[in-house]
Design a protein that fits this description.
The complex is a heterodimer of chains A (224) and B (425). By secondary structure, chain A is mainly α. In chain A, 61% of the residues lie in helices and 0% in strands. Chain A has helices spanning 24-31, 38-51, 57-62, 70-77, 83-92, 98-110, 117-124, 129-142, 145-154, 160-179, 183-193, 200-214. A nine-stranded mixed beta sheet of chain B has the order 13-12-11-7-10-9-8-14-15. In chain B, strands 3-2-1-4-5-6 form a six-stranded parallel beta sheet, sandwiched between helices. Classes of the chains: A mainly alpha (224), B alpha/beta (425).
């Protein structure tokens, strides 16, 4: 019977221990304590997210710029239903750069934060390829008519990886329309994505989606 | 001296290209009909998968991508030796490999944290994917995976090779033929706690000095997993049993055995509605689940070979008229009334070969593989829901339609994990 070989043991200071059982107030104390270690703060972020500790939102937002802890802070903020979590993420857009900014953009997209859309559309036009691509993905995920217009407008000018990401984002946006009951808008976007200048993989995906939708047993039926 | 007409007449003969030149003799496949593959993150498990690909005359493996220099070199050496050339190209950036228009499909055998993001990136580049299990790190990733492969109309085969194992197929046949009677209970052996406890550790190992980036790119190795200090143990396979990288025993084996239960009982499009954890983090544990129609699914730690010594990754089907149980030893245990219906099966290693064979055939014919992304999503969501129930230590109820727990907000917040920047799904 295969069993684990001897494995290295975590040192005492890198064991989660009681942090897994702390309440919101205690988590805030760790997150705001300059003497707390990276490990303690990382675990407090995860615990805060699972607990839904809205009291910790400002403290989590303060860690979004931290190179090592930013993902932990987003682990805390992303699943919180409170609008304050979206607000904290949105407010950090102008303060962050590099990967940390990309992470926050992804979180806003995942939360479908429509209030962030104008800022994200602007970021989509920036020359930094990674930044523009992250913003495009978030715009597609938000999936509103305004988002679709921004993606349709950007696609004809894009090349290379940006073109692939924009097309992918538009496909996601079309799926959002279908899921939200906006079938006509979804099909219109798929039709746009079936055009000859769209990357082949996305174009084929859009064509398949049109066939799938138009032959679905759930499609609207014409009445005589 | 020959006339111009004589020269032309003589030169016509060689223009009829012998079939052997096209590779069509002795069952060989023309180069244009071969499935061209690349691999990303091929460790010991991926090397098994690769060994099957290298046996197929209608597949060609041409590229390897890995963040570990040693693995790139090892896989290139294996492939070049098998083909008798030096054609296998090495990459450390997956985007470079995926940008190659000649590559039809990729084998993904990285650590679990990379499975969903890489599979989705591959689909975006128009590639079909064979990906090792567990296929996802969360409920959210499971759905995203299925959605992406539908979005791009690409083919996906999860590394749930027992769907193509003869002994497992016979058990399924016995249920579907009605020999077992109406289905009552499915049993999925999950990873023994002695190997993979149901609750992986959230601790960190003490940091050590990073190796040179040319030897190991720690940032890319971590990929979408949250940052932690480097320790060589993680890279040497010790990443398992750490929450940030692993789903514990339930995902480790449940991704195989729950998947078998779903496949056998035609439950590939649904999930249980109740999850009740039993036991602790050491010693035998279980999660008792129930589907909306009353059928039970029992995920249980029954040791490595199961109580009936049928081998690892065993599963059991109980109907009103009889039961069957089998695992990697390929022997099928059953109730007495079923024994006359049993027949010899094939050796266990054939399951992987059959499974990879199915994938290659599907890529060529565009048929949907048996362990496709939608089926994998449903079985993995089931495992993740059970994993969350175990972490919460309470019975959870689940809405299949809404894709959410109906009695626990914390459990709902655990359906997803933030990916480390710049990665996203």
């Amino acid at each position: 019977m295969p069993q684990n070989n001897k494995r290295p043991e975590p040192p005492a200071e890198l064991r989660e221990g009681d942090i897994a059982r702390l309440d919101a107030a205690a988590l805030v104390k760790i997150l705001t304590n300059p003497a707390a270690t990276e490990f303690q703060k990382a675990k407090a972020c995860q615990r805060a997210g699972e607990l839904g500790a809205t009291e910790a939102i400002p403290a989590l937002a303060a860690l979004l710029a931290d190179e090592k802890l930013s993902a932990y802070a987003r682990y805390g903020l992303e699943p919180m239903a409170a609008p304050a979590a979206s607000e904290a993420l949105r407010n950090s857009l102008g303060k962050l750069k590099g990967n940390q900014l990309l992470g926050v953009i992804a979180s806003l997209g995942k939360r479908r934060d429509t209030a962030a859309l104008p800022a994200l559309v602007k970021l989509m036009q920036r020359p930094d390829a990674a930044l523009a691509q992250a913003a495009a993905a978030a715009v597609g995920s938000i999936g509103t008519p305004e988002a679709a217009r921004a993606l349709e407008s950007a696609l004809p000018k894009a090349t290379g990886m940006m073109q692939i990401v924009l097309a992918d984002s538009a496909l996601v946006c079309a799926e959002r329309f279908l899921a939200d009951g906006q079938r006509d808008q979804g099909l219109a976007l798929y039709t746009f994505l079936s055009g000859p200048r769209i990357p082949r993989a996305a174009r084929h995906g859009a064509m398949s989606a049109i066939v799938r939708e138009e032959t679905s047993t759930r499609r609207p039926r014409a009445t005589p | 001296m020959k006339t111009r007409r004589q020269v032309l007449k003589q030169s016509l003969a060689p223009m009829i290209v012998p079939s052997v030149v096209l590779g069509q003799r002795s069952g060989q496949v023309a180069p244009s009909d071969k499935v061209v593959m690349g691999g990303i993150g091929i460790g010991s498990r991926g090397a098994h998968d690769l060994s099957k690909i290298l046996k197929f005359s209608d597949a060609k493996f041409l590229a390897i991508c890995d963040v570990r220099n040693e693995r790139r070199e090892t896989i290139k050496s294996t492939v070049d030796k098998a083909y008798g050339n030096r054609d296998c190209k090495m990459y450390s950036d997956q985007y470079e490999l995926l940008a190659r228009p000649d590559i039809d499909a990729v084998l993904i055998a990285t650590g679990d944290r990379w499975h969903t993001p890489l599979s989705i990136i591959a689909a975006q580049h128009g590639k079909d994917v064979y990906c090792e299990k567990p296929c996802s790190m969360s409920i959210e990733e499971s759905w995203a995976l299925a959605q992406a492969f539908q979005r791009y109309n690409r083919l996906y085969q999860a590394g749930c090779q027992r769907r193509n194992g003869a002994n497992f197929k016979l058990c399924r046949e016995l249920l579907q033929s009605g020999a077992l009677g109406k289905l009552k209970t499915l049993y999925a052996n999950v990873g023994p706690s002695v190997n993979w406890p149901p609750l992986p550790s959230r601790d960190w190992l003490a940091g050590e000095d990073l190796p040179p980036q040319g030897v190991l790119d720690w940032d890319r190795w971590l990929g979408p997993a949250p940052w932690r200090p480097y320790h060589p143990s993680y890279v040497q396979g010790g990443w398992r049993n750490y929450y940030d990288f692993h789903g514990g025993g339930i995902l480790e084996w449940g991704s195989h055995t729950v998947d078998l239960c779903h496949w056998a009982a035609d439950l590939d499009d649904t999930q249980p509605v109740e999850y009740e954890p039993i036991g602790g983090n050491t010693g035998p544990y279980a999660v008792n689940c129930r589907y909306a129609d009353g059928v039970q699914l029992i995920m249980r730690d029954n040791g490595w070979d199961g109580a009936l010594d049928t081998g690892s990754c065993s599963f059991r089907i109980e109907g009103e008229n009889g039961w069957v149980e089998t695992g990697d030893k390929t022997r099928i245990a059953s109730s007495d009334n079923i024994k006359p219906l049993l027949r010899p099966t094939e050796p266990a290693p054939m399951a992987l070969e059959n499974h990879m064979r199915e994938f290659i055939t599907c890529v060529r014919t565009r048929r949907t593989p048996s362990a496709n992304a939608a089926a994998a999503a449903n079985s993995h969501v089931t495992c993740h829901a059970a994993f969350i129930a175990f972490q919460r230590g309470k019975k959870l109820t689940w809405s299949v339609e809404k894709r959410e727990f109906t009695n626990d907000d914390i459990a709902n917040r655990m359906r997803s994990r933030a990916l480390r920047e710049p990665w996203r799904i």
